[in-house]
Each structure stands twice: as C-alpha cells, then as structure tokens.
C-alpha cells in the first residue's frame, strides 16, 4: 500500500511539472498564464486591455515575475504546421506550411532591497508559399519594484515592441478591406509603447492592500491604410488609464477585491470622433478552497461615452471568471468566461462587445505523455448590428523527453459564422511543436522544482 501511494504521489508531482512545461505562455503575448483564453484563437492586437487581460491588483501581470529566483530564464518554442485556409478568406482557401519560432528571455535580480524584472519575447513566422504573410513580433517589458518603506511600495513598468495582427481573429480587420497592396498586403503591423506606475499600500504588513495606478499606451498601425485616414483609416491612438484597486484577505487563500478605473482613448487622426472616455468598476473574490479547486470571479460595469454625441455609447455589465479544478493528481480542468468592450478593426464600427466561454483539459496518460484539449465560444456583437460567432477547439499530445524538453503534435479548427456572409471562414490546422526551458538545460539536472521561465506571463500586444 505504501508503494502504491508513493508511486501516485510521484506521478502527480511529475504531472504538475509536465503540465507547466507544456504551457503556452511563451507562444501567446497575453497576460494570463497560458489560460484557455489564450489558446487557439488569440485576441486581436488592436483590442483594449480587458478584464481577461488585466487581472485585479496586477498579481498575474506584474507581481508574479518578481517572485522568480534571481537568474536568467531563457525558453523557446518552435512549431511546424499545415494550414488549410491560411488567410482565412471566405471566397477561396489557400493552404500553406508555416514555421513559427517563439523565443523568450527573462531576467530577475535584486537591487538592494528593490526588485527588477525584464523580459523579451518574440514571434517569427515563415511561410512556404505565401511568403508575403511572413511576420515577426518583438516585445520588451521591464518592471522595477521599489521597497519604499514598511507600508509602501512603488512599481514602475514600461514596455516597447512591434507586433502583427493575425488575420481572422476576434476584432481584426476583414480580409476584403485591405486596399493598398490588395490580397498581398500581409498582416497588419503594430508598434506600441507604454509606461506606468503602481503606488501600493499594505502589501507587506496588512490584509488590506490598496493600489493607485496609472498607465499610458501609444499604439501605431503601420501598413493598414484603408482610404482617407482622416475619415476612417487612421487607427493610431493614445490611451491613458487611471485606476484604484482594493484587496482584502479574509483567509490564508481567500480575498475579496474591487477596482474602479477611468480610461481616455484619443485617436491621432484629425477627424477624431472616435475619442472616448470609459469608466469600469468590478467587484469579486479570489480563492483557493482546496488543493483541487481555485479561481477568481468578478462582475461589474463598463460605461463608454464618445466625445461625438452622434456616436452611441455603451453602458452594461462586464464580468470575468476563471476556475481551475484538479479532478485527481493526473487531470486538471479549467473554465473561463468573460464579457468586455473592445476596439474594432473595421472602418465603420464604434466598438464591439465580446462574450467568451472556454474550457480546457490537461491529463497525464503516463508520467511522460500529456493529453490536452480546449474549446472556446466567442460572440462578438458590433454596434452596427454585425455579429461574429467563433467556435475554436484543439487537441494535443505532448511527450516530456527531458525535464527541459517537450515535443508533441496538435490539431485545431477555427470557424467564424458572421452576419456578414463575406466574413465567414473555416480554418483547420495541424502540426508538431517543440518546447524547451533552456534554463533547466543550462543549469544542469535536478532543477525541475524551480520555476520554469515560460510559466510566467509575457508582455501583451496592448
């Protein structure tokens, strides 16, 4: 009996290491620890940061990297996939082979009693035939955590990068709206930069934590000219956000929280009737009821008003939920749901409301063989009456060759059913992937108990 229990415990521990090893955090540039929301269909690069992408009290985007050990954290993922409808067109399907390389490097150190974290992440895609679709993304994030006093902390953060917007994702520009260059324009390219600060009270000494934060984002779109940029083509903009967070611990692993934020969005074009102000508030609870069940749930309201009174605004409920349940030491299920107001990529809409429901499952068939599956349903309602419904699912099988190397195969399908017939598409893909936590390799064996570099979030496309 003791031998059986020992083996089960060992397999469970191996699963936890393996599941974290096969996380997709390196691949996706969103802030959510490889949650199901980031698997498969990514969010459009032009969307604003929603409750899915910016957790309360910033504990998944800013504080967590500072919990790393002082060291370098290199990692890389490489995929080779076959795509049935690469450019996700409704008129014809163009298949192609795509190679994608996604390196990352993070560094964490102490500067006296202060903490410093910096991370680079990149995506490089290469196409066999449609080489005009080749694209790359380079992102750099830095955070400095200043220990001011026993009760006060100050986090300073900044980032800069260039990225691209994958065709056919939620909120992206429809394929047939590319004018200059026609079908061979290539994916939209984006430059962005941001900086901000969080003034934190009580983080070290009190169950009550208060945060006053500010962020400024600048986003520029390089090659997405749609016509007269002063009328509807210019999407470059600046976004200023001020927020106030409160979090109160009511137990060792349970806390309630609240947030209120104000966001000003200013477009650079001369006819800037899309300028708007958005107010959000959210109340919720974060808990870990047991080793098997943990999660966060929040519900609130979003109110967006445009400077141009002729444009209809939005005032309705927003929510966010993410639940994780360990069925047994070998199997983990995750559930996610959210509603947020996002920036559109077309030339006629003021905004769209995106509802998402997703479920993911990771299961260890053996200590080395990990099965994973996910499914997502996304409903995008535009203020113009357009509605896009996405169904996205995927299956994968990964083998842990070494503590630092995982290889696997995967299959997925994305389908969009739109009220605008020309926007419908179905894209199927399959391929192989290799993931490596190079830190484990460089540091030698016996380091699997230390945090892997790709367990942590990467800078978003903002």
Helix proportion: under 10%
* Number of beta strands: 18
Strand content: over 45%
Q: Residue ranges: pLDDT <50 for 5 or more in a row?
A: 1-34, 48-63, 226-233, 445-462
CATH class label: Mainly Beta
For the biggest sheet, the summary is: 18 strands, antiparallel, barrel
Total helical segments: 3
- The helix/strand order is HEEEEEEEHEEEEEEEEEEEH
Rg over CA atoms, rounded to whole Å, is 22 Å
Look at the helices and sheets and give the structural class: mainly beta
Q: What is the CATH T-level topology? A: Porin
Span between termini: 53 Å
Please name the CATH architecture.
Answer: Beta Barrel
Total domain modules = 1
Mass-distribution shape: globular
Write down the overall mean pLDDT: 79
Explain this structure to me?
The chain is mainly beta. The chain has one domain (11-455): Porin. It is 7% helix and 54% strand. It contains three helices and 18 strands. The chain has helices spanning 2-21, 229-233, 438-443; strands at residues 71-83, 96-111, 114-127, 135-147, 152-165, 188-201, 208-221, 237-251, 254-267, 276-287, 293-306, 314-328, 331-342, 352-364, 369-382, 387-402, 405-418, 425-436. The protein has an 18-stranded antiparallel β-barrel. A hairpin with a 2-residue loop joins β12 and β13 (331-342). The longest helix is centred in the N-terminal third of the chain and has 20 residues, at 2-21. It is globular. Residues 1-34, 48-63, 226-233 and 445-462 have low confidence and may be disordered.
In short:
The protein is mostly beta strands and 462 residues long. The protein is built from 3 helices and 18 strands.
């Amino acid at each position: 009996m003791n031998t059986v229990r020992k083996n089960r415990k060992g397999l469970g521990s191996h699963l936890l290491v393996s599941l974290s090893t096969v996380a997709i955090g390196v691949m996706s540039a969103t802030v959510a620890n490889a949650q199901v929301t980031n698997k498969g269909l990514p969010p459009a690069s032009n969307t604003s940061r929603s409750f899915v992408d910016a957790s309360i009290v910033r504990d998944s985007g800013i504080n967590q990297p500072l919990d790393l050990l002082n060291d370098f954290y290199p990692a890389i993922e490489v995929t080779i996939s076959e795509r049935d409808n690469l450019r996700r067109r409704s008129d014809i399907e163009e298949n192609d082979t795509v190679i994608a390389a996604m390196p990352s490097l993070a560094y964490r150190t102490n500067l006296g009693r202060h903490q410093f974290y910096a991370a680079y992440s990149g995506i490089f895609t290469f196409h066999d035939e449609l080489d005009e679709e080749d694209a790359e993304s380079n992102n750099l994030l830095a955070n400095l955590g200043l220990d001011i006093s026993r009760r006060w902390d100050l986090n300073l953060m900044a980032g800069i990068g260039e990225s691209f917007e994958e065709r056919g994702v939620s909120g992206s520009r429809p394929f047939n709206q590319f004018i200059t260059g026609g079908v061979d324009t290539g994916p939209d390219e984006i430059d962005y930069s941001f900086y901000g600060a969080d003034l934190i009270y009580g983080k070290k000494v009190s169950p009550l934590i208060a945060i006053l934060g500010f962020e400024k984002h600048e986003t520029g779109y390089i090659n997405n000219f749609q016509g007269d940029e002063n009328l509807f083509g210019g999407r470059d903009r600046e976004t200023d956000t001020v927020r106030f967070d409160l979090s109160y611990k009511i137990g060792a692993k349970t806390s309630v929280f609240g947030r209120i934020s104000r966001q000003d969005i200013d477009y650079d074009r001369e006819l800037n009737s899309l300028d708007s102000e958005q107010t959000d508030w959210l109340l919720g609870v974060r808990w870990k009821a047991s080793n098997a069940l943990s999660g966060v749930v929040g519900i609130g309201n979003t109110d967006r008003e445009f400077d141009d009174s002729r444009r209809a605004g939005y005032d309705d409920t927003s929510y966010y939920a993410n639940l994780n349940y360990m069925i047994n030491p070998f199997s983990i299920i995750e559930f996610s749901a959210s509603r947020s107001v996002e920036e559109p990529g077309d030339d006629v809409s003021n905004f769209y409301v995106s509802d998402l429901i997703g479920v993911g499952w990771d299961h260890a068939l053996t200590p080395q063989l990990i099965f994973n599956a996910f499914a997502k349903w996304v409903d995008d309602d535009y203020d113009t009456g357009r509605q896009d419904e996405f169904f996205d699912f995927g299956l994968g099988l990964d083998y842990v060759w070494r503590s630092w190397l995982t290889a696997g195969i995967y299959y997925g399908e994305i389908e969009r059913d739109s009220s605008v017939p020309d926007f419908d598409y179905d894209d199927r893909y399959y391929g192989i992937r290799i993931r490596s936590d190079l830190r484990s390799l460089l540091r030698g064996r016996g380091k699997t108990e230390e945090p892997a570099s790709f367990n942590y979030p990467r800078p978003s496309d903002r």
